[in-house]
């Protein structure tokens, strides 16, 4: 293997040039054939039209609904699951958010929750994040959203708990066995890219309306990152360590419990972190099936386009996300620090921990007993001033910026999006299919080509080929813009720690702020257009790309940069000749993640004028007779995602090899 | 070890003192006034009433008033559930939803749940009439009065061009919740327009709001009763008149949308339960003006649904009494 790699190394230069030439040849051939066959066999389907596949999906859905009460699977399986999860959610809600056991308030009031949050953050992290947690949770109360926030927290905690219950064992298994990993991966892809709207309605059929369905919807979306990261963590434990354990006569079980798990703890905690972030991203969607909490406030405020109130609630979600993110990140860093610093700290920690525990217990007791500590005092005045500030800012932007923004929108739309879209939608389906397969094979190898072939075949089968191509055009344009932003800001952040510190909270906010909160002003600026959808996708996807590229740039060895400086390179040369080429694998990873994140915004795009697959999914959720088409459109999004993921990953492996 | 224990004890003692001090100046205890609260909330024979709340303000207005009356006059415990239509109807079968209080047509759902599964029954009309159609902002109707007739639309098509409409006029469609015949209409009326899917009510409202403010050319799908009409009184464009059956073949539709008699749907179980809440739902009727008033309280004046309902109920006691007599 090593020999083969060495042999091919000198050849890569030649092959890279020829690969570029092949890609160019494919594109030229496409343009020529497009000119000849334009408008033929494009497989268009009108908004209200259905294919047989869609009708079949409808029938399946109907028959499940009709047999719900007699089917033993429901009576003895789904109902039991629902009962367990419902009890879990209700239990946590009774503790922190909902009046319970004849009391007008929950068991633990705000003071107790703030105390617990601070104590736990300190115990698992450090005092700085504890302070942040206390401040953050108090801020939620000052916003006038205490109960809503606690409902959201209760739901998030139960969803993450259930998700980890499955995710960590599955992740460990996938980490130990390649076969399990291969089997799991497509399922995980499916869970992450299938739009939630598609399975939201059926979920309520299986698990009824309420906490259980909302939790399960969240679990489906939140578990995959934890599974993937756990598997990755187990895999990245050095081979030699495992071999050493083996040679000492450790059994499989011992090797797992004493070596693999402790050594991968830090990364596993990052998986928990990603799970939490994913769960918080579901808050507004779950509100559509009556999940209590901040999501409801957002959805309700937007019915009357009350951006201020929606922003206030969105901000609460952001605050909660940042607190939970920083605490879990600190927890994973502490694992590392604790291991290194040894036991000297421990002797100090124990009495302090005990004392903190007692303080927390007192706070909990107070908040259980006294009204002032149970119900958050005040009317949430800060919340209403946040709301009115947000309103003023939005109105100002709408009044003063729309001239500039329209010109920008029209430029991108006519210059980039329209030509590309017509190339994709007006080409015959077989031509686009062949081009996709060929590009896959050239960029990612024959395996990626084969995957592309399967995906193209299935895409045709879904009956929404033309819509898929429209969506694909917007997706590619959005990804290109995401990468432009990613490189610009990523390099900037990677080169300066100060910039990184300043920008990071904004990036976090962009990732967890419910899209509609900022989409209402965008709608005023850009109208209901594909461009608005692209902007929405960029806001959501660019932070990921930026963060990955920043990390990549920072990972370039200091000495290399210094060497370049000493040879007289200026800043521009250092960036373009040293830092970017050396973080090439980060760039490919950023493209991959950027694309997947853009795809996950397709449905939101459908809500603001993108039409195509996103609209099909939303309409399928809202209209019974379009359910099957919505499901097909959801599948098409998954297929697009899988195809691009495989091609970019294969390309990335090639680049880094 | 000994020092550690001593430290520990000192800490605990200190905290206990602190705790006691705090307790002493504690203030009102939880549950002190609970007996008073319980008195007014005697649930009577009504029990729990699960009311679906579909996501638009007009519906919210209906639900707010019915819930208010059920709680205050009938002593029911009302659980409002925020759900999309499809999910709400599913809830009839699973027993989690008792009533849908504003239904727009939905013949497919009626067939599925009322005729086939028999889990739901109709509970009469709400008195509201639902209009669906094409609307233009008021400034446009004022400056070009003839635009409100479909025959003249082609004359103005070029003005409605946007970046999305591919050289034709743009007809902005699309709250995805409602059936639209607009693509067929454009084709069959030979209009030089392209249907562009805005995709949500939010997007439509924002488009019309901006159009009125900046005097832009927008024509799009909208409906009444809707709170936004009280902010910007959109003008409906006349399409060829609706006649029964003219929309039977979806591909050949060339007529206006029918006037929807909005109605109420309840679960079959709820209808047989003898709950006073069922009688309330069945008797509940009011006018478009009534709904617009409450919807305006909620959407424009930003009152909570409860406060909005209270205000309307107090001003219209006679109407409410007729529902619960």
Could you characterize the architecture of this molecule?
Chain A is mostly helical. Chain A folds into two domains: 17-46 and 393-656, MetI-like fold; 56-108 and 143-315 and 328-341, MetI-like (MetI-like fold), CATH 1.10.3720. Chain A is 84% helix and 0% strand. Chain A has 30 helices and no strands. In chain A, α8 (178-193) packs across α10 (211-235). Chain A is globular. Chain A starts with a helix and ends with a helix. With 325 residues, chain B is of the alpha/beta class. Chain B folds into two domains: 43-128 and 262-324, D-Maltodextrin-Binding Protein, domain 2; 130-252, D-Maltodextrin-Binding Protein, domain 2 (3-Layer(aba) Sandwich). Chain B has helices spanning 2-24, 34-40, 57-72, 85-94, 107-116, 138-143, 153-156, 182-188, 201-214, 227-231, 268-272, 276-283, 288-299, 305-315, 317-324, and strands at residues 48-53, 77-82, 99-103, 120-136, 169-173, 193-197, 219-224, 235-236, 260-267. In chain B, the strands form two sheets. In chain B, strands 3, 4, 5, 6, 7, 8 and 9 form a seven-stranded mixed sheet that branches. Chain B has a two-stranded parallel ribbon with strand order 1-2. The longest helix of chain B is centred in the N-terminal third of the chain and has 23 residues, at 2-24. The model of chain B is unreliable at 34-43 (pLDDT under 50). At the A-B interface, α3, α9, α14, α16 and α17 of A face α1, α4, α5, β6 and α9 of B. Chain B: Residues 1-26 form the signal peptide. Chain B: It comes from Streptomyces aurantiogriseus. Chain B: This is Glycine/betaine-binding protein. Chain B: Pfam families: OpuAC. Chain B: Keywords: Signal. Chain A: One of its GO terms (biological process) is glycine betaine transport.
């Amino acid at each position: 293997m090593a020999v083969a790699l060495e042999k091919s190394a000198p050849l890569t230069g030649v092959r890279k040039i020829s690969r570029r030439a092949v890609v160019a040849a494919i594109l030229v051939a496409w343009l020529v054939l497009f000119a000849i066959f334009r408008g033929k066999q494009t497989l268009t389907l009108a908004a209200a039209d259905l294919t047989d596949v869609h009708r079949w999906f409808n029938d399946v859905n109907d028959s499940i609904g009709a047999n719900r009460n007699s089917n033993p699977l429901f009576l003895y399986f789904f109902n039991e699951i629902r009962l367990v999860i419902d009890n879990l959610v209700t239990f946590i809600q009774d503790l922190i958010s909902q009046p319970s056991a004849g009391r007008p308030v929950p068991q633990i009031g705000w003071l107790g929750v703030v105390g617990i949050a601070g104590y736990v953050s300190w115990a698992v992290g450090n005092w700085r994040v504890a302070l942040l947690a206390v401040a953050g949770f108090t801020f939620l109360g000052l916003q006038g959203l205490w109960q809503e926030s606690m409902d959201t927290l209760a739901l998030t905690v139960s969803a993450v708990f259930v998700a980890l219950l499955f995710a960590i064992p599955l992740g460990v298994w996938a980490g130990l066995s390649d076969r399990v990993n291969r089997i799991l991966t497509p399922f995980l892809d499916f869970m992450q890219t299938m739009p939630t709207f598609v399975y939201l309605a059926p979920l309520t059929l299986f698990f009824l309306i309420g906490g259980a369905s909302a939790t399960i919807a969240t679990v489906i979306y939140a578990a995959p990152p934890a599974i993937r990261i756990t598997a990755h963590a187990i895999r990245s434990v050095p081979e030699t360590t495992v071999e050493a354990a083996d040679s000492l006569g450790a059994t499989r079980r011992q090797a797992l419990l004493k070596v693999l798990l402790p050594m991968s703890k830090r990364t596993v905690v990052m998986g928990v972190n990603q799970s939490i972030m994913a769960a918080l991203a579901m808050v507004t969607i779950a509100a559509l099936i009556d999940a209590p909490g901040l999501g409801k406030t957002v959805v309700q405020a937007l019915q009357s386009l009350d951006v201020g109130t929606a922003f206030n609630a969105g901000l609460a979600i952001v605050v909660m996300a940042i607190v939970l993110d920083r605490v879990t990140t600190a927890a994973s860093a502490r694992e590392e620090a604790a291991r290194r610093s040894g036991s000297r700290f421990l002797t100090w920690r124990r009495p302090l921990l005990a004392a903190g525990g007692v303080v927390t217990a007192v706070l909990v007791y107070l908040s259980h007993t006294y009204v002032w500590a149970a119900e958050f005092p005040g009317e949430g005045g800060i919340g209403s001033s946040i709301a009115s500030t947000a309103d003023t800012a939005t109105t100002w932007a709408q009044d003063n910026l729309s001239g500039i923004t329209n010109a920008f929108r029209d430029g991108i739309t006519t210059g980039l999006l329209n030509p590309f879209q017509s190339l994709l939608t007006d080409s015959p389906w077989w031509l686009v299919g062949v081009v996709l397969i060929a590009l896959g094979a050239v960029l990612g190898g024959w395996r990626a080509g084969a995957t592309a072939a399967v995906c193209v075949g299935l895409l045709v089968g879904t009956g929404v080929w033309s819509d898929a191509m429209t969506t694909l055009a917007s997706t590619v344009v959005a990804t290109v813009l995401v990468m432009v932003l990613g490189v610009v800001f990523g390099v900037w952040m990677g080169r300066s720690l100060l910039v990184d510190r300043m920008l990071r909270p904004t990036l976090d906010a962009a990732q967890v702020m419910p899209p509609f909160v900022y989409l209402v002003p965008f709608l005023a600026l850009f109208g209901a257009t594909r461009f608005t959808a692209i902007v929405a996708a960029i806001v959501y996807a660019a932070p990921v790309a930026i963060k990955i590229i920043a990390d990549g740039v920072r990972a370039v060895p200091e000495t290399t940069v210094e060497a370049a400086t000493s040879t007289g390179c200026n800043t521009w040369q250092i960036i373009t000749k040293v830092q970017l080429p050396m973080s090439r694998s980060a760039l490919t990873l950023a493209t991959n993640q950027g694309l997947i994140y853009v795809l996950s915004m397709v449905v939101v795009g459908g809500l603001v004028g993108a039409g195509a697959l996103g609209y099909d999914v939303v309409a399928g959720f809202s209209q019974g007779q379009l359910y099957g088409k919505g499901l097909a459109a959801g599948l098409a999004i998954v297929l697009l995602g899988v195809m691009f993921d495989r091609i970019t990953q294969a390309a990335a492996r090639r680049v880094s090899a | 070890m000994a020092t550690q224990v001593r430290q520990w004890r000192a800490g605990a003692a200190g905290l206990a003192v602190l705790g006691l001090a705090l307790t002493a100046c504690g203030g009102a205890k939880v549950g002190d006034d609970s007996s008073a609260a319980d008195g007014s909330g005697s649930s009577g024979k009504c029990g729990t009433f699960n009311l679906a709340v579909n996501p638009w303000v007009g519906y919210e207005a209906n639900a707010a008033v019915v819930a208010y009356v059920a709680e205050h006059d009938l002593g029911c415990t009302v659980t409002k559930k925020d759900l999309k239509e499809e999910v709400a109807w599913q809830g009839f079968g699973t027993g989690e939803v008792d009533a849908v209080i504003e239904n727009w047509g939905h013949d497919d759902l009626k067939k599925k749940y009322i005729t086939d599964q028999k889990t739901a029954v109709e509970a009469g009309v709400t008195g509201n009439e639902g209009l669906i159609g094409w609307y233009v902002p008021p400034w446009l109707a004022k400056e070009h009065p003839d635009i409100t007739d479909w025959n003249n639309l082609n004359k103005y098509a070029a003005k409605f061009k946007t970046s999305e409409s591919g050289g034709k006029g743009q007809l902005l469609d699309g709250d995805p919740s409602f059936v639209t015949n607009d693509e067929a209409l454009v084709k069959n009326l030979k209009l030089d327009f392209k249907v562009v899917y805005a995709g949500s009510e939010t997007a439509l409202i924002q488009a019309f709001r901006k159009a009125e403010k900046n005097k832009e050319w927008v024509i799009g799908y909208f409906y009444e009763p809707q709170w936004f009409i009280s902010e910007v009184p959109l003008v409906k464009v006349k399409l060829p008149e609706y006649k029964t059956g003219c929309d039977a073949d979806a591909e050949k539709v060339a007529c206006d949308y029918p006037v929807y008699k909005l109605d109420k749907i309840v679960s079959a179980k709820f209808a047989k339960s003898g709950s006073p809440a069922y009688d309330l739902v069945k008797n509940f009727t009011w006018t478009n003006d009534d709904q617009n008033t409450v919807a305006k309280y909620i959407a424009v004046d930003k009152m909570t649904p409860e406060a909005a309902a209270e205000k309307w109920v107090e001003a219209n006691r006679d109407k409410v009494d007729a529902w619960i007599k």
